Amino acid sequence: MTIQATISTSDRPAGASDPLGVAEALRLIAAHEQEAARTIVMIPSENMLPPLARLPLLSDLYCRYFFNDAEDPADWRFPAARDAAALETQLTIPLLRQLARARHVNVRPISGLSAMTLVLAALGGPPGSPVAVLSPQLGGHYATATLAARLGLQPVVITGPDPHTPDLGQLSAILKARRPPLLYLDQSHGLAPFDVSAIASAARQASPGTRVHADTSHWMGLTLGGALPSPLEAGADSFGGSTHKTFPGPQKGIIATNDPEVARLLRQAQPHVISSHHYGATCALGLALALFAGRCPDYPRAITANARALGTRLARNGLPPEGAAFGYSKGHQLWVRTAPHGVAAADAAGRLHEAGIRVNFLTDLPGISEPALRIGLNEPTWLGLRPADVPELASIMTEAILAARPPRELAARTARLRRRLPGSPVPAALRDLARVILQSAFSGILETPPEAVP
What we know:
Number of domains: 2
Number of helices: 17
Strand content: 5-15%
CATH architecture of the largest domain: 3-Layer(aba) Sandwich
Structural class: alpha/beta
CATH topology of the largest domain: Aspartate Aminotransferase, domain 2
Radius of gyration: 23 Å
Mean pLDDT: 94
Distance between the termini: 21 Å
Shape: globular
């Protein structure tokens, strides 16, 4: 059944500043869902949450607290989710330990920035302590230094000769002189991951007391899936970040470590910076981990293969991405300048949007002086994009950016390509269980009221 999602002027409140009505809000959601089924999202910092993993966000669990992860019989002060405790203690945490190759994991952060806050608060030392962070021109996150300062720490910035290479000599000198309790590797923008082993080795020699934390938000799916080395095995004391970029999970955050003291400090600090850890999202993370594990190592490896294939094809079409020296990408991202073709990046992103393809345009990509496109292959790969699909995708993108075809024609091609992607097939037995959950959670919506029956 197709829902008529067009909003008529009669439905809109008279005042322009008046809030939407419930019916109008639902129409917007319905319209978004229908449009999403025809489009391809290529934003590196976003990924789809598989439909089965969305079910906890629709259930009663989304409304509940869960603090008693030790399942202490005498400590059920918030018991509403007690019957579903195993979703965290026997699903999310064991799977995350396994995939992270870590003895200790923390699933309390509610986002990547929340994880960053917890790490800085727990491992950054007392107020006034220096903390080493990356320059934004080295891919560092825009918020790390200011957040550290707001927590009373003194950020010390690490730079490098190019956006993907920290200056290890400078790093060693800074660590030796300042002895910071924490080196926070916050690679927010990057076409190639840092060599954590080399960085951790340099840090150990220069300042043995400095802990190294790798923020792998963008690399999480590649790291958990084994396509990249574990930061812990490379010498980092901990790693973590958001769970909705290369990892196809909910908007949440995690931290992993093999050091019991780091785990203790994180747990000690967490009640002061995080209250509820959004139990519905924690359960969704567990289901996402289970679904992800079933597609490893193929999915994470395919992300980079697709990124490199698209980079090669765009270059062949006259739109070469950055990073040609290393095959355009060693992860999920491509960065493309459009200004040399007389097209502003914002206009290029707008043309792609009209063609059914969603990308970023950013003004602060390291090493690029003008706004440029940032393109991700993570979500299309989860949907099932294959190398055989890349020529058509590259053709649509090129013709959209250069305005070589009408947007409506390109949008139709995008919709056809999206329909060809297999998505996330659900076995019949799991569909039946999902149906039970939906019927229980939405009985008041899905069931026809007796008075409406003819």
